[in-house]
């Protein structure tokens, strides 16, 4: 049997993407398909991009790489 509403995983890599990360997440949030998980992998950013990800009112899994 084919699943008509499969889970779609969106994985975003981030390194100092403060200028773009919030708009990118909001774009994902605004999509009409609702069976989506969003994963942000932060590669030791030194800007405020990770803080922006954490402040977006959207269910996001965050993976923080230390280096």
Features:
24% helix; elongated; alpha/beta; three-stranded parallel beta sheet
In words, what does this structure look like?
- The structure is a single chain.
- Helix 1 links the parallel strand 1 and strand 2.
- 24% of the residues lie in helices and 31% in strands.
- It has a 3-stranded parallel beta sheet, covered by helices on one side.
- The chain contains 2 helices and 3 strands, in the order E-H-E-H-E.
- By secondary structure, it is an alpha/beta fold.
- The termini are far apart.
- The protein has a domain of 33 residues.
- The longest helix is centred in the middle third of the chain and has 9 residues.
List the helices and strands and how they pair.
Layout: E1 8-14, H1 21-29, E2 36-43, H2 49-55, E3 60-65
Parallel strand pairs: 1-2, 2-3
Question: Would you summarize the structure shown here?
Answer:
By secondary structure, the protein is α/β, with parallel strands linked by helices. The protein is 24% helix and 31% strand. It comes from marine sediment metagenome.
Radius of gyration: 13 Å
- The shape is elongated
Low-confidence stretches: none
Largest sheet: 3 strands, parallel
Q: Which secondary-structure class do the elements indicate?
A: alpha/beta
Indicate the multimeric state: single chain
